[in-house]
Amino acid sequence: MSRTFDDARRWARFGTALFIKAADDEALDAPSALPGWTRKHLLAHLAANADALGNLVHWAATGEKTLMYSSPEERAAGIEHGGRLPAAELTAWLRLSADTLESAMATLGDEQWQSPVVTAQGRTVPATELPWMRSREVCVHAIDLATGLSFADLPADFLAALCDDVVAKRGGGPGPALVLEATDTGARWELPGEGGPVALAGPLHGITAYLTGRDTTLGGEPAPTLAAWL
Fold it and tell me: How many CA atoms lie within 13 A of 64 on its CB side?
């Protein structure tokens, strides 16, 4: 599907509310679905991500170069520090950073939204990409909190857009050639790779979980191992 700027804004708001609600749990020291990370680490990551995207909003608004993070080491250290904060303090940071980012984005005019900024991966993109970047973080990591949510709880149009995004990113890297078909929507993706294409089918939410590395099966059957997505 062809996602729009308004779509991304809507998904970012939806995912933020979903993540914050899922994070409203006393067991924040429990493991998340990500190896080596507790739920606290995920909260710290999402809070820091909002602050970092806020840096890019500032760049777009003022023209003053403001990187997301000063370095990968600074980013990692911030997450580790946040993971050790008391739950109340960490939750307050999560909420404040999300509100501050939303308020900052709301002030950007049409011309400012077209301003080029640089992501943490070094890609130069227009500021219009920032809501999509945020929606991916909050929606996917809401599932990673391991509080009972699944990809089936996310909007179908977001899932389709995420599959488009993942396939585009995976298309240039190593891995098996795949043809994936969503049995509930009819959507289809071709992933170039090594060997003859393997045909896989399943519900849209299952395909999304597989492509993002959150499941190693599809339709209950083992699926080819994929390399890291991001």
Answer: 6
Tell me the one-letter amino acid at 11.
W
Q: Are strands 221-222 and 194-202 parallel, antiparallel or unpaired?
A: unpaired
**In 115-216, at which residue ranges do the beta strands (DSSP E only) sit?**
116-118, 124-126, 176-182, 188-191, 194-202
Domain at 5-149, CATH homologous superfamily: dinb family like domain (1.20.120.450)
Confidence of residue 75 (pLDDT cuts 50, 70, 90): confident
Q: Which CATH fold topology does 156-222 show? A: Nonspecific Lipid-transfer Protein; Chain A (3.30.1050)
Q: What is the pTM for the complete model shown?
A: 0.95
Q: Bigger pLDDT: 59 or 222?
A: 59
Quickly count: other Cβ atoms within 10 Å of residue 124's Cβ.
9
Please report the DSSP string for 21-38 in residue order.
HHH--S-TTSB-SSTT-B
Local structure of residue 153 (DSSP, 8 states) = G
